[in-house]
Amino acid sequence: MAITFNEVKIFYNTNLSKLSTCEDKFSAILEKARKNKTAPIYSVHSRKKDIGSIFLKTKRDKITKIDNLHKMNDIIGFRVICLFEQDIYKVFNYLIETIKNDPTYNLEEFKIFNWDNEIQLSNMKDTAAELCGKDKSIDKKKGTGYKSIHFIIKDTIHGLIFELQLRSIIQDVWGQLEHALSYKKGGINEHVQKSFILLSKDLENADRLVRYLRDVSDKEHIERKYVKNKYRPLKFFKYEDNILPEIFTPDTSCDVKFRHIITAYNNYNDIMSNYRRGRPVNFDSFSAWLEKTIPQFDLLEDLLVKHFGLGDSDSDSDSDSDINNIEDIRVKYWILMERAFLSFCSLDYDSAMKIYDQFLTEEAMVENGEFLSDRYVVHFRVGEIFHARGETERALEKFDECVRILENNKDDPALKVISSPKNSFSIHFKLAHIYWTFGSEYYTYSLKHIEDALLVFNEHEKAITEEEPSVSLSILNNICWYNLFAFNAIVKDRKIDKLDKIDQEKAMEFLDKGEEALRNMLTQKGIPLQGYDTAAWFLFCQYKSGVKDKSALTEAKEHLDKAWEADNPKEEDILYSLDSIELRKNHLREIIHALS
User: Fold this and answer.
1) Full DSSP string of 260-295
2) Which of 251, 268, 527, 557 could form a disulfide with 531 if both were Cys (CB 3.0 to 4.6 A apart)?
3) Which of 170, 177, 175, 185 is nearest to 216 (CA)?
4) Runs of H (alpha helix) within 410-459
5) To which H or E segment does residue 47 belong?
6) What is the rounded distance in angstroms from the CA atom of residue 574 to the CA atom of residue 581?
7) What is the 3-state secondary structure (H, E, C) of 186-210?
8) How many other CB atoms sit within 10 Å of the CB of residue 115?
9) Pairing of strands 105-113, 137-140
10) Torsions phi, psi of 12, nearest 5?
11) Buried (b) or exposed (e) across 151-181, using 16+ Cβ within 10 A?
12) pLDDT per residue of the chain (596 residues) written in tens, 0 to 9
């Protein structure tokens, strides 16, 4: 079970005093050396990770036990900066002597990145190994050109582990730029990553290249911000029987006194049935759908308020429009949820969040039991909005809560109705995609959610495919894609025979699962453009990693040709497909180039 955001928060607040004391004490040692010129230190910077960053790291590093948070080696971090690279070796020796002579500190691990002076490299490794052991004194190559020295140090008094990074001022600028432009919470722009390699080889071009990198990063940020500002809800989730107001159930459909309400509800429901996968179908545009949907909702809301409100049902006074006058909690909940959904569809995130927050407050839980606060849909919607805003940690917190509620309720007889499996399938399906957008460190989460989606799909295939028959192809395509995602996360542009045995076996297991789904998909009719693109890229990755020979490229090219012949995406899909379009363009370039 994953560590929750609240558990991280409790851990952080409980240990804050110790963390601050540890940070202050070692900072004082470094500052004293700087001021007294005991070592040629130019500046010292320290920081504690915030709660959100710690929570995010538990995801990346697959930390599942609270007790292991104490072992996280960079909750406290120091950067020790030298003006010149020549000074680094002197500061290194000072740090080694300080750790050796102060029983408060133990050197747990030593890493040196991309050091080209072989004599210094050997001396530093051997010296550090005397304190932490040869297997913990490591030199590493990093493709971005990042150059630095890292000490992992344990404060034995407080039982905390912290990281110290030692580098020159130019290397520090380099490290800061890499952190800022490669944004560790999501995927790294490949152009930025490759350009950093060029920059490391020729620092004389730094100004010109950094301007280029800033330009690339800004353009990508603007593009992603534009797309995310157009992000709308995944789909319209149908209500379970224990949530849906009784007036909307079949038992009331023949009651004459409810005729106007039932007619308005059926008309509204018909429009909502056109909302699938983040967009309306059978409409020319989103605005056309909203122009028809919002007035229909307003009419239905007005009828419900007049019928269920505390005022005179024949009155047209303003008080009758206040849903706070409604005593029936299901009706009130339904109106608020639909209003929030339509605000979200209208890209009015603030109004939607204001409503959702009502369901997540302590007051709502106390007033209405757990009826409002323990609904998985609310947490999922809030997570979607946080994701759209780029607030990754808060989005993950809400998605975790949504999954927890789904897991706890999956055996609840009250939820075993036809709409619940559809909702569960859709949520897991979407979460797989969201974790994929966060980058390769999250591949296990993408895989888990697509596998959970598959379990629900296999059990309720008829119910899930009755409205969208193409879902069966989508699930195969996504199983293939996320297993390929996992494979590439392990291989990392290396040949498969260069991996150790464990990684080889794990990578090939993912590849075999992905290929099985791919071959199954390719035997079916109506394969979408994305399916052919997945097939082409799958074969290319097999070739690139040495699993298949060059004949795989020819087959990949055939799939690309079929992708061009497949149905083009509709106009309203474009805003939701910019990442996919860019991916397909990159796939085309790489495959054609490899064939040339």
Assistant:
1) HHHHHHHHHHHHHTTEETTEESSSS-HHHHHHHHHH
2) 527
3) 177
4) 419-438, 443-459
5) strand 43-48
6) 9
7) CCCCHHHHHHHHHHHHCHHHHHHHH
8) 19
9) parallel
10) -65, -50
11) bbbbbeebebbbbbbbbbebbbebbebbeeb
12) 688 899 999 999 999 999 999 999 999 999 999 999 999 999 999 999 999 999 988 988 888 888 888 878 889 999 999 887 788 899 999 999 999 999 999 999 999 988 877 888 999 999 999 999 999 999 987 766 667 899 999 999 998 999 999 988 877 877 776 666 654 545 556 666 666 666 655 554 544 455 566 566 666 666 666 656 678 898 888 887 778 888 887 766 566 678 889 999 999 999 998 887 778 888 888 889 999 999 999 999 999 998 887 654 444 444 335 777 787 888 888 999 999 999 999 999 999 999 998 888 755 544 444 456 668 899 999 999 999 888 889 999 999 999 988 887 766 554 444 457 888 899 999 999 999 988 888 999 999 999 999 999 998 888 888 877 788 999 999 999 999 999 999 998 889 999 999 999 999 999 999 999 999 999 998 888 889 999 999 999 999 999 999 999 999 999 988 877 765 544 334 444 556 777 888 888 889 888 88
Nearest to 141 by CA among 116, 168, 110, 171: 116
Evaluate whether 170 touches 222 at the Cβ level (below 8 Å).
no
Residue type, 91: V
CA-CA distance, 375 to 393, in Å (whole number)? 20
Beta pairing partners, 46: 78
